[in-house]
């Protein structure tokens, strides 16, 4: 490089400022490649054994006419150090890709995918989407991925379930879970209280399928009434047959602002006279991950975003729910459980 060229880079293009960003840009490239490699199945494939490009193309269903583009993508993985090429075969090399590829890290991989696929996109696309009025919809989400990712919260939700079940001398016998997720909380409750009668619904077919597969693997599928349905489609039960407990885990923000009061009123009508409602939810004011989650939902056609803690408590009280209380489930994070008894005037 000529001295004149170097001077131009330093004094005219301020290349030193770009060099200071080297680590940040490298991290972005690495994250983008690892996320795409995980979603495509490449990481799992290479975790089993090294492969040549033709084996990779076959597994990823890439035709011969696009083989050169596949090689260009794999070159990106080599360039950021996530892949290695030895003897014509690709290997996992980078710490990130090796971590995401391990089956025991499935929840971590799902969380990483949620961040890179949804949180990053919301932050990057927010000004454009706001200007153009383009809203996200549930069809923009992979429901099964979100169910996998939310499993990181399982210990905290289990604590909230224990809290709800300990409120009365006799544990709830009839329970409805609204939003069944991966089915883990259903199997948890059945193991803890095997005599209970358990029902569950979810609005996304792929989530119901995921929960059904989990329950079948646990030998519990026949003990749960599981269906794809909307909460508002459920008719009030006959007198004396209401649920003792209804749970909503990590999905209260799936409902619009003007639906949230109606939701509480409808749930009240499904409960037995002294039945309870348990809500677990992220609330506004937490970590960057929670802020990005709130952003995604405010950019969606739901529009409301995450609830505020005081707002949700106030809504329960305004709707007449008795003994409304809450507790922080995740230390240092705005993740809470809310518990309340059915309003006395509910029909």
Automatic annotation (TrEMBL):
Domain Methyltransferase, residue spans: 175-275
Name its GO BP terms in alphabetical order. methylation
What InterPro entries does the entry give?
Methyltransf_25, SAM-dependent_MTases_sf
Listed A to Z, the keywords are: Methyltransferase, Transferase
One matching Pfam family: Methyltransf_25
* One GO MF term: methyltransferase activity
Its protein name is Class I SAM-dependent methyltransferase
């Amino acid at each position: 490089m000529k001295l004149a060229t170097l001077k131009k880079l330093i004094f005219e293009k301020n290349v030193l400022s770009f060099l200071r960003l080297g680590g940040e840009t490298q991290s972005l490239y690495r994250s983008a490649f690892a996320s795409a490699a995980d979603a495509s199945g490449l990481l799992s494939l290479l975790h089993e054994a090294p492969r040549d490009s033709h084996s990779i193309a076959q597994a990823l269903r890439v035709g011969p006419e696009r083989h050169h583009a596949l090689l260009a993508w794999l070159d990106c993985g080599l360039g950021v150090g996530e892949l290695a090429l030895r003897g014509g075969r690709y290997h996992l090399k980078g710490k990130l890709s090796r971590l995401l590829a391990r089956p025991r890290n499935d929840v971590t991989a799902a969380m990483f995918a949620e961040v890179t696929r949804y949180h990053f996109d919301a932050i990057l696309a927010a000004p454009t989407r706001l200007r153009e009025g383009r809203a996200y919809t549930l069809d923009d989400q992979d429901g099964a991925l979100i169910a996998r990712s939310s499993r990181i919260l399982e210990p905290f939700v289990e604590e909230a379930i224990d809290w709800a079940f300990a409120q009365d001398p006799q544990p709830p016998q009839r329970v409805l879970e609204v939003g069944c997720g991966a089915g883990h909380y259903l199997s948890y409750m059945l193991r803890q209280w095997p005599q209970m009668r358990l029902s569950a619904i979810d609005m996304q077919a792929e989530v119901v399928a995921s929960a059904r597969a989990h329950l079948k693997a646990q030998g519990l599928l026949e003990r749960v009434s599981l269906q794809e349905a909307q909460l508002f489609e459920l008719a009030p039960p006959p007198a004396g047959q209401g649920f003792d407990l209804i749970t909503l885990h990590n999905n209260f923000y799936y409902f619009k602002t003007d639906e949230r009061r109606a939701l509480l009123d409808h749930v009240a009508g499904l409960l037995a006279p002294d039945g309870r409602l348990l809500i677990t939810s992220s609330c506004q004011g937490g970590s960057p991950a929670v802020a990005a989650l709130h952003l995604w939902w405010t950019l969606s056609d739901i529009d409301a975003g995450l609830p505020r803690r005081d707002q949700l408590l106030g809504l329960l009280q305004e709707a007449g729910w008795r003994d409304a209380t809450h507790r922080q489930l995740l230390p240092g994070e705005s993740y809470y459980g809310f518990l309340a008894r059915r309003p006395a005037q509910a029909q």
